[in-house]
From TrEMBL:
Name of the protein in its database record: dTDP-glucose 4,6-dehydratase
GO biological process: nucleotide-sugar metabolic process
Organism phylogeny: Bacteria, Pseudomonadati, Pseudomonadota, Alphaproteobacteria, Rhodobacterales
Record's keyword annotation contains NAD: yes
Organism expressing this protein natively: Roseovarius halotolerans
Sorted UniProt keywords: Lyase, NAD
Family as reported in the entry's similarity comment: Belongs to the NAD(P)-dependent epimerase/dehydratase family. dTDP-glucose dehydratase subfamily.
Obligatory cofactor(s): NAD(+)
Classification via NCBIfam families: dTDP_gluc_dehyt (TIGR01181)
Domain of life: Bacteria
Pfam assignment, any one: GDP_Man_Dehyd
Length: 346
């Protein structure tokens, strides 16, 4: 299959690109290389004859028309997005432009190409979204594909808007779309502004480890390579017009996750005195911080046969080891604006 992957230089997109090439797919990686996009993330496949790169912005409709005509992909996996909730609080405009208008541009470019090539029924427009569109859960219950949308942050509202556009293009124009909504990812190449790499890197530098509020917010964690596997299954076998929730039943309170990372580091690279847990500091909560996310993944398990390969403990161990082994990847990123400082306090 020839797949046009947008955002393929980002955290999840690069895992998709690496896995797709490994499985023999032809991949065109379309990415604007914002602060979050790094070509180092796809270095492992950059020399493959199956891989090519298009430096382009999904806000640029003319560029998209050229790229679709030049490559005529069998499928699109649309991951390009502004993805950091805290940044969306300080500057929602980029999230509206890229996540909503950019998705609209991608849908129109895909529809034009699909129409020009005789509307092949096997074509797929796979939109990669988040469980954050469903809002916040109480102490019990799970998000299913039928849970009503109730986004609370500029980020999740922009993703919810893009999901609605994608469904509208299916119902109105018949474009064969598939959607996936996934829980929080973690793993190698995770940009250091996000919780798990931030905890690992602050700990390694002997800096305070900030935990929002009382650390009681619950997230459902999925190893990024398991997500990439689910995404390839969805683009290959997903039914047009259908949504699939992706998650691994790995709910953890933030404070418990941070403790687990500290304990893993205590074992792998002990401090001279004390535990990395001593560096934990509770800081002002994020405005509108959703209390709990938890995914019911039964549909993707039952219909497509997907299940995750690692538990959160195994995935965290791999992730911590990867950051210990790859300082040349993360060291330069710590200098980028907003990475080492708190943003999104509104
Ligand atoms: N990280 C998570 O836990 C998570 C969970 C569920 C869903 N998602 C979704 O998965 C997708 C990828 O998330 P991620 O964490 O890998 O994000 P990321 O921020 O690591 O990567 C985003 C990529 O998109 C590119 N990009 C941004 N704006 C662009 C534009 N205007 N034109 C072209 N390229 C652009 C960036 O350069 C970068 O390579 C997003 O759509 C996100 O909403 C993420």
């Amino acid at each position: 299959m020839k797949i046009l992957v947008t955002g393929g230089a980002g955290f999840i997109g690069s895992a998709v690109v690496r896995l797709a090439v490994e499985r023999g797919h032809e991949v065109v990686n379309l990415d604007a290389l914002t602060y979050a996009g790094r070509l180092e993330n796809v270095a492992a496949v950059a020399d493959s004859p199956l891989y090519s790169f298009e430096h382009a912005d999904i806000r640029d409709r003319a560029a998209l028309a050229r790229i679709f005509a030049a490559h005529d992909p069998d499928a699109v996996m649309h991951l390009a997005a502004e993805s950091h909730v805290d940044r969306s609080i300080d500057g929602p405009g980029d999230f509206i432009d890229t996540n909503i208008i950019g998705t609209y541009n991608m849908l129109e470019a895909a529809r034009a190409q699909w129409t020009a090539t005789g509307r092949p029924p096997g074509f797929r427009f796979h939109h990669i979204s988040t469980d954050e569109v469903y809002g916040s859960l109480g102490d019990t219950g799970l998000f299913t594909e039928e849970t009503p949308y109730d986004p609370r942050s500029p980020y999740s509202a922009s993703k919810a808007s893009s999901d609605h556009l994608v469904r509208a293009w299916f119902h109105t124009y018949g474009l064969p779309v598939v959607l996936t909504n996934c829980s929080n990812n973690y793993g190698p190449y995770h940009f250091p502004e996000k919780l798990i790499p931030k905890v690992i890197l602050n700990a390694l530098h002997g800096k305070e480890i900030p935990v929002y509020g009382e650390g009681l917010n619950v997230r459902d964690w999925l190893f990024v390579e398991d997500h990439a596997d689910a995404l390839l299954l969805a683009v290959e076998k997903g039914r047009p017009g259908r949504s699939y929730n992706v998650g691994g039943h790995n709910e953890r309170r933030n404070i418990d996750l941070v403790h687990a990372i500290c304990d893993c580091l205590d074992e792998k690279r002990p401090r001279e005195t004390g535990s990395y847990r001593d560096l934990i500091r509770f800081v002002t909560d994020r405005p509108g911080h959703d209390a709990r996310y938890a995914i019911d993944p039964d549909r993707i398990t039952d219909e497509l046969g997907w299940k995750p390969s690692v538990t959160v403990e195994q995935g965290l161990e791999k992730t911590v080891q990867w950051y210990l082994d790859n300082p040349e990847w993360w060291e330069p990123l710590l200098e980028i604006e907003g990475v080492g400082t708190r943003v999104g306090t509104a």
